[in-house]
Specification:
The complex is a heterodimer of chains A (110) and B (329).
Chain A lengths: L20 H14 L7 H14 L3 H13 L4 H21 L1 H11 L2
Helix pairs in contact in A: 2-3, 2-4
Chain B lengths: L3 E2 L2 E2 L2 H7 L12 E5 L25 H13 L4 E5 L9 H10 L3 E6 L12 H7 L3 E5 L5 H8 L3 H14 L11 E5 L10 H16 L6 E3 L6 H9 L3 H10 L3 H5 L6 E4 L5 E2 L2 H6 L16 H4 L11 H4 L15
Parallel strand pairs in B: 3-4, 3-9, 4-5, 5-6, 6-7, 7-8
Antiparallel strand pairs in B: 1-2, 9-10
The chains are: A mainly alpha (110), B alpha/beta (329).
Chain lengths: 110, 329
């Protein structure tokens, strides 16, 4: 194994089902349904997936949902704004824990 | 999951067999598409014709006279004129008028910017007088996307051309002058749902520039010609072809445009479609392959010449010169 992440491995995702087919089927059905058009459009769902992909820093997901977002009609400006939302939440989540730091400091101090 | 079969790609004929459509045959001829040649004022990155300002292939009047005699003799309702930029051919206006006088529905695939070429300034009025239906490429409503695909400055010229066409009634409510736009992806991915992206185009072009049009056709980039070179250069060819193969849709295959279209080359050769034309794949399987030997009976039930590129017309909701093949709602 030369690298932990190989783009060709994305096509092997369904191989996961070989060792636990029932669980894979449940996951696949749920996954497929979650991305179907509903109260949100398929385009909106692909953008959410793209943003989450960046938040969890999943190279497979970034590959898949960059293409999916383009194929659902999003443009690079919209995709970059979605990534900024994910980054803002990640950054904000770190920063808001500063309140906990302040609580600890306050508790320990005079 | 991927489109490979053994060491090679799954052939298109094999996919047709699997869906009960082999051999693919024409059902009728309602569209007589003529490619006037490869001369164009643009040199777009996705162009399967590999057209450009330096190309010299151009249809002759003699060949057009033969086309007219066929159109006079047979009840083929639609004449679809493409190129290159067909307007740059010296016989374009004469031929268009003749077709109109024959009562044909005349469609011209115009790149929009050609009206800013010397001597072409009155083309919009010419189109309007002859009730020509226009089908014009505008791959996106953002300047950056359009110019990266079609060349610097093309977007702004296209917008000015659309404003001019609107002023003559093209694409406007309560007008019978039809202006359809064509979207194609700005790279190695499939087009979005036609209905959804049409709404975006209508909203954005109206809000940004006050432009109206009738319909948006989404067209898949064909893995041939200049676009194939791009795919190979960027190491995207294999994944793109697999994307098309995996998205094969039998419903789209059933409705592909070659089943009701004839494609005529600038030298009078007959092809099943403009893509086969660019690959040099003449009509075959016993059908005539030149207008000098035109035989409607043989052509309208001919077997179609197929290849891997045909997956471009059958992926997802399909792709044709008139947009999707299967309605995507």
């Amino acid at each position: 194994m030369d690298t932990y992440y190989n783009p060709a491995d994305l096509d092997k995702f369904s191989d996961i089902g070989e060792d636990a087919p029932e669980l894979w089927k449940k996951f696949s059905d749920w996954y497929g349904t979650a991305f179907q058009e509903g109260a949100l459009s398929e385009r909106e769902k692909a953008l959410i997936a793209l943003a989450v992909s960046h938040a969890i820093q999943c190279p497979y997901c970034i590959d898949a949902y960059s293409q999916a977002s383009l194929e659902k009609g999003s443009n690079p400006e919209q995709m970059m704004e979605a990534i900024h939302v994910a980054a803002a939440i990640r950054g904000g989540a770190s920063l808001v824990h500063g309140v906990q730091m302040k609580n600890v400091v306050k508790k320990l101090g005079f | 999951m991927n489109g490979k079969e053994g060491d090679s790609y799954k052939t298109f004929d094999r996919s047709l067999e699997d869906s009960g459509l082999f051999p693919l045959a024409a059902t009728d001829i309602s569209v007589f598409q003529i490619n006037f040649g490869k001369l164009c004022n643009q040199a777009c990155l996705h162009c399967h014709v590999e057209a450009g300002p330096q190309r010299t292939e151009n249809i002759s009047k003699e060949t057009l006279v033969t086309c007219l005699s066929i159109l006079k003799k047979y009840d083929i309702p639609t004449v679809d004129i493409t190129g290159g930029a067909p307007e740059m051919n010296p016989h374009f206006r004469w031929f268009t008028r003749e077709c109109t006088e024959l009562g044909k529905q005349v469609m011209v695939r115009s790149n929009l910017t050609v009206i800013f070429e010397p001597g072409m300034e009155d083309l919009p009025e010419f189109y309007a007088r002859n009730r020509v239906e226009l089908i014009s490429s505008l791959p996106y409503f953002l300047e950056k996307s359009v110019d990266s695909q079609r060349g610097r400055g093309v977007f702004q010229k296209s917008i000015q051309a659309l404003i001019k066409l609107n002023s003559l009634g093209y694409g406007m409510d309560n007008s019978d002058l039809i202006l359809n736009l064509v979207y194609n992806p700005n790279g190695a991915f499939l087009p979005p749902a036609q209905g959804a992206i049409e709404k975006d185009f209508k909203r954005e072009l109206k809000n940004r520039y006050g432009i109206s049009f009738n319909n948006l056709f989404t067209i898949t980039n064909m893995p041939i010609g200049r676009f194939k070179h791009f795919l190979e250069r960027t190491n995207n060819y294999q994944s793109y072809l697999n994307r098309l193969i995996n998205a094969y849709n039998p419903q789209a295959a059933e409705g592909v445009m070659c089943r009701y279209t004839l494609s005529i080359g600038w030298d009078g050769t007959i092809y099943d479609c403009d893509f086969n034309q660019m690959l040099g794949l003449n009509c075959d399987h016993g059908a005539p392959d030149h207008i000098n030997n035109f035989d409607l009976e043989k052509l309208k039930s001919r077997r179609i010449v197929t290849g891997l590129h045909c997956y471009g017309c059958t992926a997802g909701t399909g792709s044709s010169c008139g947009g999707v093949v299967v309605e995507d709602n």
